[in-house]
Amino acid sequence: MRLLATAGADLDRADLVQLYAYPDPVPGRAWVRINMVATLDGAVHGADGRSGSINTPADKRVFSVLRGLADVVVAGAGTVRAEDYSRPRVKPEDAERRHAAGRSTRPCLAVVTASGDVPAALLEAPGRDDSGWRVVVLTTETTDQDALARLRTTLGEECVLQVGTDTVDATVAVDALAERGLARVLCEGGPSLLGRWLAADRVDELCHTSAPVVVGGDAGRIVTGPPLTDGGPWRLGHLLEDDGTLLARWVRR
């Protein structure tokens, strides 16, 4: 048995960027990272139904770093609505680093929806502009045609990706993102989306925050859906502690 983490080790943002850096991209292959937070009793959100209410300062720091490293942030439409998503913003130093590396200064937002129902606030501008990919929609072949037409009119044909028949196929979706240069994938849920992507074996890494609170109630877990026949094993990449918050990075063997 080994002691993996102790309190008091101060890490600045540059240290965190190095710790959470993605592997060097492989052409045509995306690296998929999940990031989720849960309470000590396993709740994925607080009494208000939002994960933001159980975030801690340490979790927010790492959350910001992860978004600053990603090419694309993926979330289900339900999570996008509940958490009031917009295109992810990053710290100025992250934007400068990305620009110096020839990347867009901000990550793209990818919304997963079988119905084509996307919040209107995300449809106020084209999905791609001179700054790169802004918003893309991952949807299905059977999505309502009127909904598809509305999305294509606002976002543009290339930003509406039909990547599955009745449901969004994780493998097709991830490959489609990689083909568009969005190889550093950060998936933020919700739990049913994570369950499908794990079942499809398209998750490479899981960043899991344990917030030092207990909320009770009937909140779900970070992953829901059918039991996984091959749910592991996972290798611990690192474990950090800050004022009771535990931040673990797990990598699929």
Could you walk me through the main structural features you see in this protein, from its secondary elements to its overall organization?
Helices cover 26% and strands 23% of the residues. The protein is built from 7 helices and 11 strands. The chain has helices at residues 13-19, 57-69, 77-82, 92-100, 145-155, 170-179, 191-199; strands at residues 31-39, 72-76, 108-112, 128-129, 132-133, 135-139, 160-162, 184-187, 205-211, 234-242, 245-252. The mean pLDDT is 93.
**E-strand count:** 11
Strand order of the largest sheet: 7-6-3-2-8-1-9-11-10
Gap between N and C termini, in Å? 20 Å
Oligomer: single chain
Low-pLDDT residue spans: none
Radius of gyration: 18 Å
Number of helices: 7
Helix-strand makeup class: alpha/beta
Strand content: 15-25%
Instruction: Give the overall silhouette.
Output: globular
Mean pLDDT: 93
The H/E string reads HEHEHHEEEEHEHEHEEE
Tell me about the largest β-sheet.
9 strands, mixed
- Helix percentage range: 25-40%
Give a nutshell description of this structure:
Helix content is 26%, strand content 23%. The chain contains seven helices and eleven strands.
Secondary-structure map with pairings?
Blueprint: H1 13-19, E1 31-39, H2 57-69, E2 72-76, H3 77-82, H4 92-100, E3 108-112, E4 128-129, E5 132-133, E6 135-139, H5 145-155, E7 160-162, H6 170-179, E8 184-187, H7 191-199, E9 205-211, E10 234-242, E11 245-252
Parallel strand pairs: 1-8, 1-9, 2-3, 2-8, 3-6, 6-7
Antiparallel strand pairs: 4-5, 9-11, 10-11
